[in-house]
């Protein structure tokens, strides 16, 4: 058995004892040397009784990562932010933020997960134990996201079911749910569009799918829409049977859910390019407004790339932990992040060719059509255009099927991050009970989503979307980067990467990890806290107490980090003076770390119990 070079030799210490009763410095009675990893030197051991799953094929992993990173936000958020921030000029800050911020953190998380082969909670025992609260915060954020994100997929499923008709139900104003304000301008002349006008697609979304008219806002969200309840139950059923056996099942499902959206996007792109007025939308999408580069475009670009690539959600850690030890995660990071960014760019053409067509039909400017952002762009604007195309039923079916698959991929990744983190933290209890644990987790997510299925559920979705994984996830990524680069040490991390790949990360990556990426994240977090516009949805202004509730939701996840730090400092034996006085071995590592890893010791004196020095 090859000796692990990352562990120091034994160093005697005559006075300290560990929690197993062994004197610090005595040879461990269980093992004569540090434990080994089945993948390579310097890695973390895997209990032989519970061998870790591995991806069946390399493509299973790549498609899972692409499926997580490419989600509904790529279809609506990037095009909207792009044209709001100068069109083609936005691509400059977007590319720079991707190169210096998003991709380096994407690479870091893949490398961390692959080297340590464990989830977001227990991984901190090997990196910097005092920051273990980051893992718990990630899991709570993952739950908040599952509470509202799957409801959006349920809306898409409702649309998908409604599309199987000769005439799409949002194509006319002759339905029971329509109001006198319903205005259908397609195929008609001399139609006046006013501020009170509502398209058939908007009234179908708000009055038929959501039934917002039966809600009094957040004060009275009303009862549960049983149709949406059935849709959500079906979504979670699909999610359960995709995740219950681990990567062996989810790795096969993504071959459909991750590839189908690209086929649909290409079909919709070709169809959109042939519509009258499509060129107006493309010009509006790409026309550069250089003056925007002096505004807040840099903050929007940085936020978009971080939310799009998804570092900090624990998903990349979890997915990479099932890789073979010597897998080239560096190449994987470059490929998958490039695919994600190019998909966002392609989606812009798909959306704006249709928006140009709608502007042509309404005889208005493209910016007047494209004022909607968020899910409204997917459930109102685009369906309205589809309803007036030749072959509308076919295009509606494939469009909402694409939305469902895009959403499912991200749900697979988000929940797998929580599953892997908790199961790796408590392997003795959960290792042989994955099916039951996944069932329990899915049940919790389903019950937590019930408030989003009410008549006022859209208001709850907006609140959770804004605060559940907004500023809190950016702050978590910031602390994660600091913990790895500054506390664990960039040199130690670089040695870990070299043990896996055979080469050390270049100077560019090290500078990004240590300085540039943390600075960008701190800038975004500060900007997000300072600039918080009032929440509104369909003319409804959120009350002040709802904003306070949102801040509590965001803080409830982040608070895990300082709480665990205080707990760790109080629980760990020894005073801070003893911490500073603890001897170090010639290799620069505290010998207590080696004894803990070799003997399985869990109660140790600082600093090793706090920071892997």
From TrEMBL:
It holds the Pfam family SNF. Residues 1-51 are annotated as: Disordered. Disulfide bonds join 173-182. It comes from the Eukaryota. It is a multi-pass membrane protein. Coiled coil: none annotated. Na(+) binds at residues 67, 69-70, 74, 308, 340, 406, 409-410. Keywords: Disulfide bond, Membrane, Metal-binding, Sodium, Symport, Transmembrane, Transmembrane helix, Transport. The keyword tRNA processing does not apply. It is found in: Membrane. Its main location: membrane. GO terms for cellular component: neuron projection; plasma membrane; presynapse. One of its GO terms (biological process) is amino acid transport. InterPro entries: Na/ntran_symport, SNS_sf. Belongs to the sodium:neurotransmitter symporter (SNF) (TC 2.A.22) family. NCBIfam families: Na_transp (NF037979). This is Transporter. It comes from Phasianus colchicus.
């Amino acid at each position: 058995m090859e000796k692990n070079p990352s562990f120091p030799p034994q160093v005697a210490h005559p006075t300290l004892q560990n929690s197993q009763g062994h004197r610090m410095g005595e040879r461990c009675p269980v093992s004569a040397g540090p434990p080994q990893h089945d993948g390579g030197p310097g890695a973390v051991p895997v209990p032989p009784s519970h061998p870790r799953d591995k991806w069946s094929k390399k493509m299973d992993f790549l498609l899972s990562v692409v499926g997580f990173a490419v989600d509904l936000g790529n279809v609506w958020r990037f095009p909207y932010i792009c044209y709001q921030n100068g069109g083609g000029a936005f691509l400059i800050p977007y590319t720079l933020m991707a190169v210096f911020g998003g991709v380096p953190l994407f690479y870091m998380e893949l490398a961390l997960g692959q080297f340590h082969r464990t989830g977001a909670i227990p991984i901190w025992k090997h990196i910097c134990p005092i920051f273990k609260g980051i893992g718990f915060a990630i899991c709570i954020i993952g739950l908040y996201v599952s509470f509202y994100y799957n409801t959006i997929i349920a809306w898409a499923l409702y649309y998908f079911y409604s599309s199987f008709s000769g005439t799409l139900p949002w194509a006319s104003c002759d339905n029971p749910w329509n109001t006198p304000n319903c205005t259908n301008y397609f195929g008609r002349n001399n139609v006046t569009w006013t501020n009170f006008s509502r398209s058939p697609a908007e009234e179908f979304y708000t009055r038929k799918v959501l039934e917002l008219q039966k809600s009094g806002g957040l004060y009275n969200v009303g009862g549960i829409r049983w149709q949406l309840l059935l849709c959500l139950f079906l979504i979670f059923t699909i999610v359960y049977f995709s995740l219950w056996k681990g990567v062996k099942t989810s790795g096969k499902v993504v071959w459909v859910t991750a590839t189908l959206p690209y086929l649909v996007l290409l079909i919709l792109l070709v169809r959109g390019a042939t519509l009258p007025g499509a060129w107006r939308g493309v010009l509006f999408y790409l026309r550069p407004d250089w003056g925007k580069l002096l505004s807040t475009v840099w903050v929007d670009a940085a936020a978009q790339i971080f939310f799009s690539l998804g570092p900090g959600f624990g998903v990349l850690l979890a997915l990479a932990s099932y890789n073979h030890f010597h897998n080239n995660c560096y190449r994987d990071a470059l490929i998958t992040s490039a695919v994600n960014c190019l998909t966002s760019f392609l989606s812009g053409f798909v959306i704006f060719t249709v928006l140009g067509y709608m502007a042509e039909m309404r005889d208005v400017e493209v910016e007047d059509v494209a004022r909607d952002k968020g899910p409204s762009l997917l459930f109102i604007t685009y369906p309205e255009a589809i309803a007036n195309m030749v072959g509308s039923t076919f295009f509606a079916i494939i469009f909402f099927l694409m939305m469902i698959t895009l959403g499912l991929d991200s749900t697979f990744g988000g929940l797998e991050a929580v599953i892997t983190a908790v199961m790796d933290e408590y392997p003795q209890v959960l290792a042989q009970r994955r099916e039951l644990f996944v069932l329990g987790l899915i049940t919790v997510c389903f019950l937590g989503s019930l408030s989003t299925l009410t008549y006022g559920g859209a208001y709850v979705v907006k609140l959770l979307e804004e605060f559940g994984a907004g500023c809190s996830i950016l702050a978590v990524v910031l602390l994660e980067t600091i913990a790895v680069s500054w506390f664990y040490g960039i040199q130690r991390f670089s040695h870990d990467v070299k043990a896996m790949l055979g080469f050390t990360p270049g100077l560019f990556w090290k500078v990004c990890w240590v300085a540039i990426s943390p600075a960008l994240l701190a800038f975004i977090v500060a900007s997000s806290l300072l600039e918080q516009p009032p929440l509104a949805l369909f003319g409804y202004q959120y009350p002040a107490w709802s904003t306070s509730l949102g801040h509590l939701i965001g803080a409830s996840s982040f608070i895990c980090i300082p709480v665990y730090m205080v707990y760790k400092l109080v629980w760990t034996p020894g005073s801070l003076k003893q911490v500073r006085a603890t001897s170090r071995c010639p290799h620069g590592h505290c010998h207590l770390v080696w004894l803990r890893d070799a003997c399985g010791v869990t109660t140790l004196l600082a600093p090793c119990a706090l920071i892997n020095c």
